[in-house]
Each structure stands twice: as C-alpha cells, then as structure tokens.
Give the backbone structure.
Amino acid sequence: MVKFMILKVSKSSVLSGDVYISGSKNAAMPCICAALLTKQKVILKNVPDIIDVNNLLTIIKKQGVRVKKKDDIVIIQAKRLKTRVLSDLVETLRGSYYLMGSILSRKNKLKIKYPGGCNIGSRPIDYHLKAFQELGFNVIEEENKIVIREMTRTSKDVTFPKISLGATINVLLLSSTFLKEVKITNPSLEPEVLCLIDMLKKMGVSIDILDKQIIIKGARKLKGVSHSIIYDRIEAGSYIYLVGAIQKSKVFIHNAPIEHLQTVIMVARKMGIIVYKKDNILVVEGNKGIKKINLLIGEYPFFPTDLQQIITVVLTKAKSSSTIEDPIFPNRILHLKELKKMNAFIYEQNQVIHIKPCILSPGIIYATDLRCAFALIVAGAITSGTTYIKNIDYLFRGYEEPIKKLRHIGVNVEIL
Ligand code: EPU
C-alpha cells in the first residue's frame, strides 16, 4: 500500500449529531470467500465500501469470478475459479487467507501468496495450515507462497490450542463440501463467525454449535444465497469511545449491533461514559470526567482486542492510572510510541500497558495500522492545537467514509 496521506486533526469541542454504522469488515471478508463455494449466484448485502473488501473483490475477479457491486450490494458468481492466487494484493490484506479454505473446498489444489495484514505483532497461520493437513491436504510452504494439494479428504476433529477467528473460518469454509462430519473444538464464536455460519446454513451446510464445539456436515453442491452482513461492532465501539472522550458531546449511533456490544458498553459506562438505547439507536454522551479501569481483553464476549488502541487514548484523560492487558495481540503497541510523542505518560511492561493521567500535546505522528489510525484521531480530537497524522491511509482499510462521518459529528479533520 502506498502511504502518503496526512490527516490534520484539531481539537474538537463538542460532538453532536448522527453516525451510521456500516457492515462489518471482519464478517464481509469470510462471506465474500464463502460465495466461491458455489457456482450459483450469491447476493451479499450491507457490504462495507472499504479498501480491504475492495481489494478482496479485485482478487476474486482475477480468479475468473464475476463480481458486480452497487452501493452496499455485491453479487458474486463463481462459475469459474482459478486455483493460482498470485495477485500482489493477497499480501496486502489478512482476509485473503480465507481464499485458502474456500478454493480448496471446491478444487483439489491451490497456490497462493502469503496473506498480509496489519502490523500488530506476530500473526502466524500455523493453526490454519495444520488443520488443512489434518483434513487430508498436503501443505508446502515456499519462500512467499503456499502450495496445497488434496491427498485424501479426512473428516475429523480439529482442535485449536488457542481460539482463532481466522482458523475457525478457514476450517468452516473447507469443511462445507465434506460429506462426513468435521468437528472444531475450541472454535471462535465471535459474531463474525456466526454471520458466516448463518450464510453457510442457507447454502445447504448443516452446522451445529455446541459448548466449545462446532460440528459441520457439508454438501456436495452448495446453493446460491442472499445474505446480509452484520453491522460492524468495532466501528460502533470506535465511535462510542471517541464521543465518550469529549465532554458534553451527544451523538446518536444508528445501526450499532447493540447485542454484540454488551462488554464494550459496560466498560464505557465504568469509565463514566453515558451510553443508552433509545428506539434501537445507541446514544452516547461524554460525561464530566473519565474514570480509570484495569482491563483484561479477551475473545468475544469479552472486550475486543481491536478497540485496545482507542481505549488507551481515552484513558489518558482519567484522573488516576489504568492498565490494559491483551493476551490476544500483546504486541499491538506501536501506538504507544506515537502517543509518547504527544507527551503521553504511557508504557508497556510485562505485556501490560500502563496509562498514567496526562494532558496530550499536539505533534506529528504516524498511523501504524488500521485501529491505530482511529486511535490517533481520537488523540488529536482531545488535544489542544493541531495534530498531523501521517500514513492515515490505513484508516480506509476498515472504516467506511471515515472523514465524512467524523466531520458530520463535529470532529475537525482534514486530509492534506
Ligand atoms: N494464532 C496463532 N496461529 C494461528 C492463528 C492465530 O498462533 O494460526 C494466534 C494469534 O497470534 C493470536 C490469536 O491466535 O494471538 C488469535 O488470532 P486470530 O486468528 O483470532 O486473529 P486473525 O484471524 O488473524 C482476526 C481479525 C483481526 C482481529 C482478530 C481477533 C480479520 C481479517 N482479522 O485476525 O482484526 O483483531 O481476529 O479478533 O478478521 C482488525 O480488524 O483491526 C483486525 C486486526
């Protein structure tokens, strides 16, 4: 990705008005790849217009798949499906690894470039590759490519040592055409996985969810389907904490998937942010002061790792020290260096982030990944003066129309 855009953010006094949440990035990408499991037409609704999704659609077009996009609707028909996925775009996004599960499910071989993704610490794909092997595929890792070939499809129990969203989705995609039962033990049951399961069931796959287990019984031919992507809980959470950080603000968040935001709302309330539901709209108000918290991040339904950087910024406003521990991505800490440039009193020790009360000063800082980009906007919006964020391009990978939405509620942002 070429990184050259700079965002100017000035202190934003009171935020007000409405923000409309878009479809979920992390649900859209697996569902787009699930559309490749059938030769029939698939209609996906509520697909966000973001760089990662658009790049994934470009990749599948190169695989011979027909793709039509209008507004938030994407129509996909994969009558043809080439098995060599060698576009450079594969290396630019994490979600491209779902092409492994879906292409192998329909075909018996695959050659794919290594998937990329945001710079948030080590992101191995060993669980994915081990699962493919256990299900009867031979995996060879070359310098920057992976070559996978079917030996004998073997239905069995795949057990993950740690909960993985991506690996759970890849096994779901691959097993969808297995005629005998595949079990996933210790799967991810995040709302994005459930959105995919919902789609696969409509396509003819039988899927049961038990306590800590998913049982999949696939079908030889999957049906076409019309499916709506769930709303993005991380985008909604990002706006909740942005608004909550600015006293006297009052913003109406529409389309927020409130049922998926229970912990995010609970933590916001503990921090003194006022959050309530009014006619299915989430109303967020910035209160007098932010309160400290000691937060342990975890897999859903616990507090999501994707909001760690944003909440870190908000906690600089608390009157006493806070801590955040993220065992999922403990090295997602590049934002700390940038916040220190703004005089934040913040450090990481033994994989715990310590945030001391401080008043941020404006500076020239760098976005290092998608969520870091939003976190730094929050930092700029609560800081007197003008902050310049370099590499803001990352923001557009996962937030739909961020500048328009931010300006609409009163955040002083301008792309230079
Ligand atoms: N893990 C392994 N080996 C694997 C896979 C995962 O050790 O083969 C470990 C990871 O290192 C991590 C944990 O398992 O410690 C969980 O990783 P997971 O596989 O769940 O993450 P992911 O699939 O790579 C997705 C999202 C991330 C989100 C995480 C956690 C996509 C494209 N990415 O990543 O989203 O943070 O799940 O919920 O869906 C973002 O949106 O900003 C983002 C980074």
The two ends are 18 Å apart (CA to CA). The pocket of EPU is lined by residues 25-26, 29, 94-95, 118, 120, 122-128, 162, 164-167, 188, 305-306, 328-329, 370-371, 398 (CB under 6 Å). The chain has 13 helices and 24 strands. The first helix runs from residue 25 to 34.
